[in-house]
Amino acid sequence: MPPLLLIGCGKMGGAMLAGWLEQGLPPETVVVEPYAEAVSAFAGRVRHVASIAEIPADFAPAAVILATKPQEAPNALPQLARFVASAPVFVSIMAGKTVAGMQALLGGEAARVVRAMPNTPAAVRQGFTVGFAGPGVTAGQKALADQLLRAVGDAAWVDDEALIDPVTAVSGGGPAYVFLLVEVMAAAGVAQGLPADLAMRMARATVAGSGALLAASPQDAATLRKNVTSPKGTTERALAVLMDEAAWPDIMKKAIAAATARSRELAG
Ligand SMILES: NC(=O)C1=CN([C@@H]2O[C@H](COP(=O)(O)OP(=O)(O)OC[C@H]3O[C@@H](n4cnc5c(N)ncnc54)[C@H](O)[C@@H]3O)[C@@H](O)[C@H]2O)C=CC1
Ligand SMILES: O=C(O)[C@@H]1CCC=N1
User: Fold this and answer.
1) What region holds the Pyrroline-5-carboxylate reductase catalytic N-terminal domain (predicted)?
2) Does the global pTM surpass 0.80?
3) Domain 174-266: which topology?
4) Could you give the ipTM of this predicted complex?
5) Taking a C-beta distance cutoff of 8 angstroms, is the pair 190, 196 a contact?
6) Among 6, 7, 11, 65, which is best to mutate for testing ligand 1, by the most ligand atoms less than 8 A from CB?
7) Is residue 268 scored above 80 in pLDDT?
8) Is 135 exposed, middle or buried (0-12, 13-18, 19+ CB in 10 A)?
9) CA of 173 relative to ligand 2 center, distance in Å
10) Could you tell me if the CB of 74 is within 6 A of ligand 1?
11) Which CATH superfamily, name and number, covers 4-160?
């Protein structure tokens, strides 16, 4: 793996950096992160600087990973324009930010940009990332980006950049909906008289165990669901409530549509 330049070492950037280090990331890698605490776990394994202005002048990374909040892009990207001359691939994980928008902030169309959307299970190498390679990205650069994304889980590529907005809504934010499921399931158990700590343990173990079963099983989700659902049993009653068209199917459509719309808004 070549030395990289990572801009922003927060929750996602830090999770990805941990995965790259496992894959043999060289210590010449530079991490720009204003909060020293965020990089303390990586001390001695990469070069840390607090701002883009402090990146060594002769550093020419093969890839620049953009992992700040999208709102920071108008400040950070113009400061990175000098790297475009040495033709690295810029890999952005920022929600909403389009390839064209990032190229404009980086000084023009010469910038080679991959737009990618990972998710937080990357922290345990179980992430799922979808990427889009912008104009001018070479096969070698796409292969490097793919290697970086796969270091923290599985990855897929799309040829239509517009799909990254619904990707952001489904797999980018998806872990939050699953964690919310734990919260509401535990609360519903408490409402039926279960002690709160037991209800939370049960809900957490049930979601984690179901995720592990789903990952390990060759069966699809619908079959795994049917395997739980005894005819005329208890699950059937619960699913009749949840699977009503006005319940989860419609609510999930609305939630995904809202997140997709927000991703489009963040482009601006
Ligand atoms: N958290 C998530 O589940 C996912 C987040 N993303 C995207 O990843 C990006 C980062 O999100 P998080 O890691 O959750 O946020 P975060 O707030 O944990 O990380 C952002 C980091 O960037 C640093 N930073 C701010 N200004 C900087 C600058 N000028 N130069 C270098 N570093 C700077 C901050 O100190 C912070 O540590 C966002 O653009 C988000 O859309 C994408 C997929 C999933
Ligand atoms: O909520 C967000 O905007 C980011 C993108 C997907 C997950 N977190």
Assistant:
1) 6-96
2) yes
3) ProC C-terminal domain-like fold (1.10.3730)
4) 0.99
5) yes
6) 11
7) no
8) exposed
9) 5
10) no
11) NAD(P)-binding Rossmann-like Domain (3.40.50.720)
